[in-house]
Design goal:
alpha/beta; Rossmann fold; six-stranded parallel beta sheet; 15% strand
Amino acid sequence: MVAGEASGDLHAAGVIAAMRRAAPTLPIACVGGARMQAAGVTLLENISAHAVMGYAGVVRQLPAHVRRLGMLRTRMRSGTVGLVILVDYPGFNLRVASAARAAGVPVLYYITPKVWAWRAGRLKAMRSTITRAAVILPFEERFLREHGIAATYVGNPLLDGASDLPSRAEARAKLGLPEDARVLALFPGSRRGELAQHLESFTETALELERRMPNLRVIVSVAPGMRIDRARAPFQHVEGDSYAVWRAADAALVKSGTSTLEAAIADCPLIVAYRVGRANYEIARRLIRGISYIGLVNLVVGRRVAPEFIQNAMQPLAMANALEPLLVHGSSERAAMLAGLAAVRLALGEAGASARVARMAIEMLA
């Protein structure tokens, strides 16, 4: 099994745990992180420290990728590998898939590349190298099947981690927030590059709303292992407990990505914001085709549930204007948002993605 970044490590660990329950003695070797190792595998290489953001970061990792791919290619050619499970990380994992095909090893790809948004040229390689695809967004199954890839929607793994959400009162008590407070949550990102691009604008938006709503409480969700200078975000910081933050908040300002689906699962009204460096934006603008939204919360239902503020549109006054009515219980904007979030949850379906992927893997090994 091969995963790259922290999120892939987390989702891969869930699959490993499910496979261990079904087949306790099955040998599993991995390239991944600490969570996969803790789930009970032979860790061939820990690459959790090598996560990158942007195209320049990818280029810097090329020598390590070449060495790692050579190591995996040798193992797959040994005849001892019955299945390769790839988790996200497409820039590297599609090369692993090609090497597996050359070695005659079947490939199960979990959390496939977002070819419906960009890099559609990858579809040809996916069609020729992936034996089965386990996808986590409902519309991906039909899209990939239309392009000749055996895809199955297995549910979204975020649902697996949100099976026992705290109530609003429980979350506020845990975070030391008054039950009757009006609370805004900030989710500026989990990578240093995202924080550099988002934190100033997110803070300015929150300060503007504090001026309008003197009783407003602002909390910042800090990703595990990250540190945010309190001088740059002078609010309450909560590390590594995102669902408590979601459930405690009346509304949230959220960077684009899987966090927007967490908001839907936790039933927290939100607006979506995202900015990258100019060079990365120009590259992405030329590659991305055929989608109307960037936020997954909108893509899942094919319509705008949450307003989006992308690149130059990420202006604090505009974002404050969009958030203000969402913080007011009983407003028409908040009611419409809650109805939209309910539609997203319905589209995502039931929890159990990890167990479904594990069953697919064991079937392919049989």
